[in-house]
Backbone:
């Protein structure tokens, strides 16, 4: 179900050109750390692999087991890439290799949550180690050689120091993942902008049955698309006037500002997040399986959802939508015959003109069908403003 969702390209450059000028400031060096050293760094918290990431564990135990088997038989594995936190010497963000590090931590029982100290399964070369746990390797003298091979295995680790800005780290992320599944923009934000706000949106979206239902899931999304839905909603609700047509930058700044202002705005963020849950419940009651979908499509469209959820943040609007649901559904479907609305949900969806068109046309529909007097958006000097 989740794979059918439209998470459309925002048509943005990977990195702004002026950021390349400072890339030469970064210092990169390679080292060979043993598994034992990496485990020690993880347990001491020097490599940031927190419980929130562990909850979004993307590898099955079988895949983790094959990774552990590769180490046990001495096969080469991909390098790790870490970025030293500028203000905390000797502590690192993980740019590439989180699932590998998490596999090491889970196998040895050093993490948190389900799957700790899992038994090896699905092995190909070392079938004799099927169902063996790390605790047994430590206790069984017959497995001492395997234990030593595991702990002494060296993994090439690239350390990046003195990195100039977040755009540099984004570029590293993207280029490291050109040969595999790219990390989602929200995964990058969670790693590069850690703080109380990013922790909150991770926790809230993971626990929200409504957001999970929206994504057709019953558990947190490993690609953090549930987190991005919440961050987009909070960004639209709190500082839409600051939007400049680049969604990635807009959401980056939302996370950074949210972390910086958490002490003053925590209650606001919590209340707004609760209103998103309420809004999703109402939208499902009104639109059922066609929520944020074009007629005849099973695919979720974020651009449509931005407009629907923006106004559904208000209790008065939610109540009126339910009271007028029989009239609202056909009016909603008629919007897809409007060329302006259709273009606004299909092309250049991140652009300010189409963002305003979506919000305005849905607001006009709500006003006409539900008898509301919602303020509607327009642009003034390239900024989104609302009348009323």
Residues:
């Amino acid at each position: 179900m989740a794979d059918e969702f439209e998470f459309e390209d925002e048509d943005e450059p990977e990195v702004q050109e002026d950021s390349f000028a400072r890339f030469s400031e970064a210092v990169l060096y390679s080292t060979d750390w043993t598994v034992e050293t990496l485990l020690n760094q993880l347990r001491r918290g020097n490599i940031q692999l927190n419980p929130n990431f562990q909850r979004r564990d993307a590898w099955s135990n079988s895949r983790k087991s094959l990774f552990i088997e590769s180490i046990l038989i001495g096969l080469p594995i991909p390098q790790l890439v870490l970025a030293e936190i500028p203000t905390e010497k000797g502590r690192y963000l993980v740019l590439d290799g989180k699932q590998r590090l998490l596999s090491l931590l889970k196998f040895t029982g050093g993490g948190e949550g389900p799957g700790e100290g899992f038994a090896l399964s699905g092995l190909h070369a070392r079938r004799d180690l099927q169902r063996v746990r790390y605790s047994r390797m430590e206790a069984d003298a017959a497995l001492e050689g395997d234990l030593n091979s595991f702990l002494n295995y060296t993994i090439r680790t690239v350390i990046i120091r003195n990195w100039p800005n977040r755009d540099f780290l984004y570029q590293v992320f993207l280029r490291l993942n050109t040969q595999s599944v790219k990390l989602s923009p929200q995964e990058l934000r969670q790693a590069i902008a850690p703080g109380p706000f990013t922790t909150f949106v991770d926790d809230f979206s993971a626990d929200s049955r409504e957001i999970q239902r929206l994504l057709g899931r019953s558990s947190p999304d490993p690609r953090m698309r549930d987190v991005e839905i919440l961050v987009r909603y909070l960004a639209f609700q709190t500082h839409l006037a600051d939007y400049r047509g680049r969604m990635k930058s807009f959401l980056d700044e939302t996370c950074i500002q949210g972390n910086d202002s958490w002490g003053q705005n925590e209650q606001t963020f919590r209340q707004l997040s609760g209103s998103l849950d309420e809004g999703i419940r109402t939208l499902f009651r009104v639109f059922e399986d066609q929520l944020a979908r074009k007629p005849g499509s099973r695919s979720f469209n974020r651009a449509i959802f931005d407009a629907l959820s923006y106004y559904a943040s208000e209790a008065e609007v939610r109540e009126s939508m339910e009271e007028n649901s029989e009239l609202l559904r056909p009016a909603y479907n008629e919007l897809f015959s409007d060329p302006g609305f259709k273009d606004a949900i299909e092309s250049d969806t991140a652009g300010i003109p189409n963002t305003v068109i979506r919000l305005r046309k849905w607001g006009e529909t709500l006003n006409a069908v539900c008898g509301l007097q919602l303020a509607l958006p327009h642009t003034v000097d390239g900024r989104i403003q609302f009348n009323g």
